Amino acid sequence: MDSLLLGSLKGPSLLSNGSYVSYSVKSVREWNFIESQCTARFQPTIPKNCRKGSGLTSTFYQRQNKRFPVNATAGHPLESEPEAISSKDVWNSTKDALDAFYRFSRPHTVIGTALSIVSVSLLAVQKLSDFSPLFFTGVLEAVVAALFMNIYIVGLNQLYDIDIDKVNKPYLPLASGEYSVRTGTMIVTSFAVLGFCLAWIVGSWPLFWALFISFVLGTAYSINVPLLRWKRFAVVAAICILAVRAVIVQLAFFLHMQTHVYKRPAVFSRPLIFATAFMSFFSVVIALFKDIPDIDGDRIYGIRSFTVRLGQKRVFWICISLLEIAYSVALLVGASSGFLWSKVATVLGHTILASLLWSRAKSVDLTSKAAITSFYMFIWKLFYAEYLLIPLVR
């Protein structure tokens, strides 16, 4: 029932004990009648500053949801049923919650995972008729399951890096206190379970093993127990990232499409071999570069990354050199293609990306954490762009 809340109007002729009263009305007409009766009956006892039209009290109607509250004046507090939460408050709360989860999920890794799976899935397409509902269903299954596991991995890393992230990434929800450890634990556990459940329902063994190996390596990388927390060791940490980003993503998700969706024998094609080799370089670069802006927190908490051991400038130019080598190899692969359209697209595309990388690298201020972080995000954009070119390799 719609309710009308009246402020306390203390006076012997209203309620002798000065208590509060509430009325329930069903329509504006009923409210108008009650208002006229109350005004006529209690006008002599209502203080002047409470009377309608005095300027210190306000009456307003919200006709859409049929609420008609009356505000109490200064000196006469309104004590009533709890006020309804406004739609603006609900919207702000929802927006804040989505923003926190967006940051928690590390969106640049989410985008990279989704693009890589779609790109590798296209390598299994042999003819136009392969673009069937079966293809899109298979891709969707792989992407959703992989994103569930991706959120588990990046979330688990944040759970064990709270103190480090307070130095390196204070905007993350766990480091900033927006999420409690319990909330973070519930999220990562839920997404790991969802990922495995989806893989089991789909019934694809390549998909299941992709998730399982990613789960094991992601856990070993972050969890702080004896013999684990492999992120402390630069070489082992790089191998973990390379194994997932370069090998598992390319091979397992290709086999998911090739053997499970299309029911074809496993064949490792030229484009697949190129994608695996190229992304091996790229994964090493990401593994090295991600620690460059994090040098302060890593040094404080004993993470012996290559950046801590060799210095920011040296690791930065190692990363640039590795990527330029990868682009040079990609140019040779593209130039050797037997298809003119593939040759033009891959040579031109990799030339543009290599030029952009070199031009931008020369202008980076290595003394500025903001500049280094911005360039790291640029590296991820190059990562995305490469997955747009990979399906064109023939």
Description:
The protein is globular, with a radius of gyration of 31 Å. The longest helix has 28 residues. It has 15 helices and two strands. A two-stranded antiparallel sheet has the order 1-2. α4 packs parallel to α8 and α13 packs antiparallel against α14. It is 64% helix and 2% strand. It starts with a strand and ends in a 5-residue tail after the last helix. The protein is mostly helical.
Number of helices: 15
Strand arrangement within the widest β-sheet reads 1-2
Kindly state the number of beta strands: 2
If you average the pLDDT, what whole number results?
Answer: 84
Element order: H for helix, E for strand: EEHHHHHHHHHHHHHHH
Radius of gyration: 31 Å
The proportion of residues forming helix, as a percent range, comes to 55-70%
- Main beta sheet: 2 strands, antiparallel
Low-confidence stretches: 1-21, 44-81
General shape: globular
Terminal Cα separation, in Å?
A: 69 Å
Strand content: under 5%
Structural class from helices and strands? Answer: mainly alpha
